[in-house]
Amino acid sequence: MMENDSNAVTVLEKCIKLDPNNNSARMLFSYSKGNYEELEKNIIYNDRLTLFMKCILYTKLKKYDQALSCLDYSFYLYEDVSVIHSLRKYSDFWSFSCSYNEIDINKLTELGIIDKFSGYMHYVMRVYLISNLINLDDRFKQFLKNDSNSLSGQVLSFEDKVLPIKLPKLCNNAIYNVSITWKINVKKILSKECFLKFSIVIENSNHDSQFEEHILNYEDVSKLEGLGWIEYTIPFKTLYYCKDSIQPSIKIEDHSIILQIDYIRFINNRNNKSDAISFPKIEPLLSSQNSNVPEAFKDNYFSRKEMENLIELKEIVNN
Fold this sequence. Notes:
- The structure is a single chain.
- The chain is an alpha+beta fold.
- The protein has nine helices and twelve strands.
- It has helices at 6-18, 23-33, 36-42, 48-60, 64-78, 91-100, 116-123, 218-222, 313-318, and strands at residues 127-129, 144-146, 154-158, 165-166, 170-171, 176-189, 196-203, 209-216, 230-240, 245-251, 257-268, 277-278.
- The strands form two sheets. Strands 1, 2, 3, 6, 9, 11 and 12 form a seven-stranded antiparallel β-sheet that branches.
- A hairpin with a 5-residue loop joins strand 7 and strand 8.
- The radius of gyration is 21 Å and the shape is globular.
- Residues 282-319 have low confidence and may be disordered.
């Protein structure tokens, strides 16, 4: 990451010299130097980047209550989970978060959830990590692949053969009108006979069930090929009560498609978003193809709009 990296510090110093009022650059400079007291002074806004920096700051200072407050507020405003992978390694923070929310991991093992990071993501942020499936069925281990762009650091990657991708029965902890979204990567189509079949089974407390299905044929899937990681929102929407269970699944044919899956999430429809396809709200701070980019930045991701005063680094580095 950026801490104590001389290249990152040099670039940020140039940013601040060119624009002394660049609050984003000052925040990242303080973070790079490990000067967390100075960083706290420069945090004055509540945009997406600032809330994330606050969360990192308070986590490093072990002020976990304040870190959790920033994380929850950011999720409430933006429903964005894309930067949370940067917090995975802070196990004490996730222990605090689960304790604060009274999350008992022992009660989630039937879902394949055995760690507190996954427990918090499921219970609070309504995100089920697909890598949890390996704790329910050992056969999924052969499809497990490391991926730095995933929330858990691991995804399931299906190529020559597949298993029935059927998730456990998931329960929400509140009443929401939700959309169901999968984070997937259609890497390559191997056959024109390919398809993606998404389905859900909803069961209420009286054991009455409802089945819904959505199918993407070859032409539909071809539009997703090569896009990289996307969030695909299923067109059907349903009122989902706290006592209901919902069991999602995906079906694909052997030797038809190379598909990777990161997670499934339930998104509140209060924003009335209708786009079926969306990209995670992160992108490289700078293109990795630019030879002028310091190595320290290549693994750091923020939205370009929020970093617009900082990412004119091609011009800055060349000065």
